Amino acid sequence: MAEETPTMLTYVEQTPAQLKLNVERSEELTAELVDLYAQKPCHSIWIVACGSSSNGSQCARYFMMKYLKREVKIVSPATFIYGEHDLHEDDFVFVISQSGCSTNSIEALDELRKLGVTAIGLTGNVDSDFKDHADLVVDYGVGEETVSYVTKGVATLAQFLMLFAIEAGARTGIVSPEQRAELLNEMADAPRRHEIVQQETWDLYKRHQADFTSMTVVNHCGFLQGYGIACEGALKFGETIQIPSFAYEGEEWIHGPNLQLTPNYTVVCVDHLTEGADRIVDIYLAARTVTDHAFIVTNSERVDDDHAIRLPFEIKEPLMMPLYVLPFYQIIAHQATTDLHRWEKHPLFEERFRKAISTKTDTIDQIMPN
């Protein structure tokens, strides 16, 4: 009997086990990158990434800044190549591509070599094309993921970057042994939380299937790590459901993009659960004065349960929340696309656009055939 073809859901459901495995081998998983980072004092960290790799990095950025006490800059490969590469001699730079086949990321590795900087590549596939362009290839611990609409890879990337911050912080004396133990202990609970959010999301989807299968334009809002989650949600909705889907920092949204809001729009907000959390709830409630199609991830009592994803567990470090909130977006993207029969793209896109320009090397067909 032939095995079933994996889907996005396959890898959403596999994510808790991979998160568990990775936190249990935190020191081993991050050792190569930590060793290099600890060789000399770091001025700032540059992450060169786009798409879901950029979003996963955005999810981890503020955690990294907090526990490494360094600025973390995220720049797209093309922007880095075309001009934004004025590096300080003590900056720490790495390029991310889950597949290791993204042509722009490969070119960014080549650019690092031209600049005389160690070309470090983080990937989920160490035998990919990255190996021919990087001085050091680091496996960030995604395991296997053969569906191009990545899910497990985003959560495990965010986790790897957080684990790197913990271990590098511990190695350089910024994170105390007690802090390290507390952070790893809370992260060890992320798999359980992920499974809870999966169920919360299915319950929400069943209550509002009509809303989620009638979306025309979606605006996503958040601050800090909530914005990182919103960025990945916007990408997933756009590439799967095939509707206009945009992420905004909360204040950015209410300073212009909100002017197009109508009762037909969908608005999704992600509460970051720290300073400023009341503001994202204010934004959500304001959106609801215009559209009934508004939803939020929050524990705020100001919000009704019917339109909310709740996080019913003790959260000591909210900056970790992407590890278990991402399935909210991933499940809805998958199920709405399935219910709407939208996995196929427009015929002209398939016939013309794919042939006109490429973003991956030919190796992608072996790495992500689905």
TrEMBL record:
Keyword check for Repeat: yes
GO molecular function, one term: glutamine-fructose-6-phosphate transaminase (isomerizing) activity
InterPro entries, per database record: GlmS/AgaS_SIS, SIS_dom, SIS_dom_sf
Any Gene Ontology biological process: UDP-N-acetylglucosamine metabolic process
Keywords associated with the record: Repeat
SUPFAM superfamilies: SIS domain
Domain SIS: 33-176
Pfam families attached to this UniProt entry: SIS
Full protein name: SIS domain-containing protein
